Amino acid sequence: MTHKASNINxxxxxxxTNVLVGGYSGDARFQKDADCLHYxxxxxxxxxxxxxxxxxxxISMFQKKKKNDEIVRIVxxxxxxxxxxxxxxxxxxxxxxxxxxxxEDNVQYVLARKQKCSIVITxxxxxxxxxFNLRVIKPERVRSIPQ
Length: 147
Hints:
The chain is of the alpha/beta class.
């Protein structure tokens, strides 16, 4: 699916679930994700987006690894730091007709496009690179986004 470049906003940045999970895991192996999030939080003039799907996935992944009060703290911080995009049946339908093989990434892409995001931060570069009009950045390269 091709979309016109005018349908994007260079100041809108979408962060994929895998970066959130890594960044809030507390695991030293994912320090690049935590550093990425800290850098994004320092940016001015940018709008940061995640999906409500990402919040649900993060909660599900942390449910057996963290205490509920810690999960609540993380979700509250996400609510404070990000604009959370809700998805509806129309978004799911749009994701199902995308040509990328990963349906969950298709949903995230549709939601990023819904908010006119020009940049997606993800550890899953191989699937997102198939989408048009998106600059796909790995967490360790996030400093290429100017302040």
